[in-house]
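Protein: Auxin efflux carrier component
Species: Colocasia esculenta
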Amino acid sequence: MISGGDFYSVMCAMVPLYFAMFVAYGSVKWWRVFSPEQCSGINRFVAVFAVPVLSFHFISQNDPYQMDAKFILADTLSKASVLVVLSLWAVLFKGGLDWLITLFSVATLPNTLVMGIPLLQAMYGDFTQSLMVQLVVLQCIIWYTLLLFLFEYRAATLLIRDNFPGPAAAAICRFEIDGDVISLDGRDPLCAESEVDTHGQIRVRIRRSTSSAPGSAISSMAMTPRHSNLSGAEIYSINTPGRAGPPLLHDHGGADATLYKMASPRLSGYASSEVYSFQPTPRASNFNELDVGTPVWARSPATLAKTFRPFSPAMNSGVKAVWECQPGAEVGGEQRQGSKDVGDKDLSFRSTTKFAVREEDDSDIEGGSRQKMPPPSVMLRLILTMVSRKLSRNPNTYSSVFGLIWSLISFKWEVAMPSLLKNSIKIIADAGLGMAMFSLGLFMALQTRIIACGAKMAILCMAIRFISGPLVMSASSIAVGLRGKRLHTAIVQAALPQGIVPFVFAREYGLHPDILSTGVIFGMLVSLPATLLYYILLGL
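Structure follows.
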């Protein structure tokens, strides 16, 4: 039975977290203490320093040689089973990759680091800290990487489908990605140059947009450096639509050169931490004055696909097709790489809150042939390159890896961390938890609507998060033999509010960000009674 003292201890752990969140909310919403730009700086500190150091602090203190195999197996089994069921649904019932990613994020990825450690420690004891740290390590290294892989795969398939319609994409033999291309997430316009060799194989080079096809109108746009997106509240609100304009078409020698200029809010380049910099930081323009000296002649992707044939060396080693696209343009909540003239259409995310099965349209069929994709090995190299580059620029990746390495060394040879370094880390880690919740409160205050996806979708997501997730976790935990407090810990941690990283990925890649935003904000409010309810029911 749960005594009054136990309940009070739990509230002592939860209330301070929510206090920091609501103070931040009020400081922006009611008292106007912070401007959006100042919020961006605070969140930047949280993403780059506070949360990575907090992760390192917990991971480095956890004994990796005393891992709870059954607890880890139960968590892995629950996530894997959800992924398998959603994959079968996506394939057999044409649910689609988009909803597979979103539903997997909502159902299986809770806010373990910030909410789980203090809350479960107050409920069931100090031993839960080690269990939660183990889940944090697995979540950061395995599950967030898998989620990032799925997002990059989706972005790559959309880019290929829109620019190589029909069977043309099957001839792609190689992707060359410039070093400054970090991701296909659409934060920056990408320029792809394709070259067809004498054997009919296509080599594609992907780079950040620096110039466009010749022509007065397009060249004048390419010669203008883009301003920073850090201007006003539009970049902070999940309800703000991306801006898109119709393609600009110019004809040069019978070949269409198509330039797609679509602007969308961009986020900081960091990911895979429990609390993330929700607001972007100013970035330098992508414009490179050194690259505009030589004009680039372009042929549209559609023209290339329709006239797909080998080129002789006499044609100056092949014809290059160059196009620019912005995969981050959010049209009806789905991220598409160009080829859609959206004009002044309202780009509200609300249209994403329906379970719609995507039918094949004309863009999937070219000359009566279904859309093809490059060979699996080519696609795998492309996606692994993008994933590795994105992870390499994520501070939480390094904090998790370094924390794990230090714990392996320190517990193997009983090496103590020098007090000078230990205290330096601790002073930031102690602030990390409160700053993480403070950052979340700032994010909530900068949204125009708490329930961005609509009431029906919010209820469905909350049911998945707080009912389906714990049920699946309880089944897998019982199946592997968890009992007592460890079983209760597994169930309650599955009922924690949704993690921040899935929302960050959804916002960057333009996939149902309204749903994930509602899961973060509304989930924090629902999680208080939900976790207390599970705690009371399991204690009876």
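Remarks: Confidence is low (pLDDT under 50) at residues 211-368.
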